[in-house]
Amino acid sequence: MQLRYSFRVQPTVGQRKRAARVFGHARWVWNAGLALQAPVKEANKLLGNPRKRLAEEPYQRIPKNQDLSKLLITEAKKGEQSWLSQAPAPVLQQSLRDLDKAWTAHEDSKSGKRPGTKVEPPRFKSKHDRRQSARFTVNARFKITPEGRLRLPNIGDLKVNWTRDLPSAPSSVTLIKDQSGRYWASFVVETDPADDADTMPQTTAETGIDLGLTHYAILSDGTKIKNPRWLRRAEKKLKKAQRELSRKVKGSSNRSKARVKVARAHAHVANARKDWQHKLSTKLISENQAITVETLGVLGLARGRNAKSVNDAAWGQFVMLLEYKALRYGREVTKVARDFPSTQVCSACGHRPPEKLALHVREWTCLNCETHHDRDHNAAKNLHYEGRRIRAAAHTPEDVPALTG
Q1: Which of 22, 193, 285, 355 is the most exposed place for a label (fewest CB within 10 A)?
Q2: Of the listed 120, 129, 198, 294, which one is catalytic?
Q3: 98 part of the active site
Q4: What is the pLDDT of residues 279-318, one digit of tens each?
């Protein structure tokens, strides 16, 4: 299983300049490759549409990765782009491979091979983008020195704030500069799920989780986890920083400093949210063998009146953390369809009221068995029962003979 381990790095002034040069060279190769491929793809798209086809013209050949590498790296270094030699060749080649993957993801999303939301075609990069990056593969000969520094060719030995050990030798490392001006080293490592599963305690417990806004998560055992509301708590500081930015003259150095201040305030909120979600997801995975969650339409909810609160909760990111940790540690996460009436059905007897419960009704009593329910706790229990049913159906052997008579 491939995982990413990210660590903060502290480059010197000279290393920042050399890193910016490598970022720029990798960006130029990406943009040059995209400029050659995009018009050909668009022309072939028009030829494939009979209504827009003007003549019987043959399809043009799309430049492949090998052609672009020869033209934009090997031959370009001999001409006007001789400055490309200041960046490692594997980094430039990796930029073209990433461009090829971006096109593949776009085409697969259109054809249905790639699940999820539609992936837009790759776009041109700018030096003013919020994120700058360069990927160093094994061929680039990056190295972790005995002193604990990260040696990157054409950049130097970077000081790394190691917070944990790498589980295996990294296959690649990506140097990233985020919008707040911080630098990160993101390592890709291989882990063995069998070894990772041994680090978790043995348990047979199962739980269902109902995600919400009043309480972030309600477990089927009645545990309620408070919603930290990271963005709401930081709004005063964010408003002040944004107000200062709006008063600065565009293009001035003071505006650039104010922009970084705003970016760092947002980064602080994002880091606090992710750290809390990591801790909560790890706790749930360690305590339960199976977890059931509801499939939420986050994109639709994020366009409603509670959009800010929904985006602040980041339910999608939390569920993603649960899924990958379950896969890593030998646990199981079951997702229940969003049309399942978890809040409308009595978890004690299964009776469903004839009228739909309004959203403001937080407690109700079943008309059939007279059980009093907390709306969210009842939903969590129903999700737990439905998850057990789905797992039991999936784990039933097909060769078991049906009962007759």
Answers
A1: 355
A2: 294
A3: no
A4: 999 999 999 999 999 988 888 888 888 889 999 999 999 9
